[in-house]
Design a protein that fits this description.
By secondary structure, the chain is an alpha/beta fold. It has a single domain, classed as Class I glutamine amidotransferase (GATase) domain (Rossmann fold). It is about 25% helix and about 30% strand. It is built from six helices and 14 strands. It has an eight-stranded mixed beta sheet with strand order 2-1-3-4-14-13-12-9. Strands 6-5-7-11 form a four-stranded mixed beta sheet. It has a two-stranded antiparallel sheet with strand order 8-10. Strand 1, helix 1 and strand 2 form a beta-alpha-beta unit. The radius of gyration is 15 Å and the shape is globular.
């Protein structure tokens, strides 16, 4: 199996590649359109702002490449947010694979922003392939200030408000948390993606 990790300039690229290596998969970190198109699985990680990430993808000529992929694709953190039509972070148009907009989390004063730390999921679609072997007791590591709407979610989480923790449309799936930093639960989710 070939796995391409899209080099979107994010800070978590190395940890994603390392997590895949721990799973027994050698992934290629790349911005090469041909490598991405021909991979069996593609991962779109991201840390940072939506505007900067979209500029990086555009400058690399990857926006149209990503939207036309037909193999399984997994977005991670900002990679989830980029799948939507628009992000309020920088007021930027995104990839438009999923309908809707990413908005800043509206949290009460007693909760900090960014949402940083461990949280659990509530699977709205317990039959989703990413949920295999999970029962909802697992904890995942989040770091984000913006979030996608729950109406597109196959799993939700909560930090002052409900938000999409995992989304799916056709061959595209994405998680708001960092599976590469989420211990055995994250490793299980990555394995589920690789086996999907």
């Amino acid at each position: 199996m070939t796995v391409a990790v899209i080099n979107s300039g994010g800070a978590n690229l190395g940890s994603v590649v390392h997590a895949l290596r721990r799973s027994g998969v050698e992934a290629t970190l790349t911005a090469d359109a041909g490598v991405i198109r021909s991979a069996d699985r593609v991962i779109l990680p991201g840390v940072g702002s939506a505007g900067a990430a979209m500029r990086a993808l555009d400058q690399a000529g990857l926006v149209e490449v990503i939207t036309r992929l037909e193999q399984p694709v997994l977005g991670i953190c900002l990679g989830l947010q980029l799948l939507f039509e628009h992000s309020a972070e920088g007021d930027v148009a995104c990839l438009g694979i999923l309908p809707g907009a990413v908005e800043r989390l509206a949290v009460p004063p007693e909760l900090r922003l960014p949402h940083m730390g461990w949280n659990q999921l509530d699977w709205t679609d317990p039959d989703d392939p990413l949920s295999s072997g999970m029962d909802g007791s697992e904890w995942f590591y989040f770091v984000h200030s913006f979030a996608a709407p729950v109406d597109q979610a196959v799993a939700v989480s909560d930090h002052g408000q409900g938000f999409a923790a995992i989304v799916r449309r056709r061959n595209f799936a994405a998680c708001q948390f960092h599976p590469e930093k989420s211990g055995s639960a994250g490793a299980r989710l990555l394995a589920n993606f690789l086996e999907s």
